[in-house]
Amino acid sequence: MTLQHFQHFTARTPEPELRSAMTLALGVEVPSDVEAYARFYRRVVQHVAHLDAIRHTASRRTKSATALSPRPAAA
Which single residue of 15, 48, 54, 65 has CA 20 to 30 Å from 3? Predict the structure, then answer.
């Protein structure tokens, strides 16, 4: 993965979430060579994708709950 790929994948990620993902990835392994940095960036992108999936699921639940809520009767 190139730096440009990493930046593309994480461009819309809020900075606190990106920092959290990086911290978690560093907790697994501190990169020290080319292969380790590739694993680091892959872990960060995977965690960001996981957060996006959670956010998307929560958004869908909110929308479906709103759609299912009773509507006030017309006057």
Answer: 54
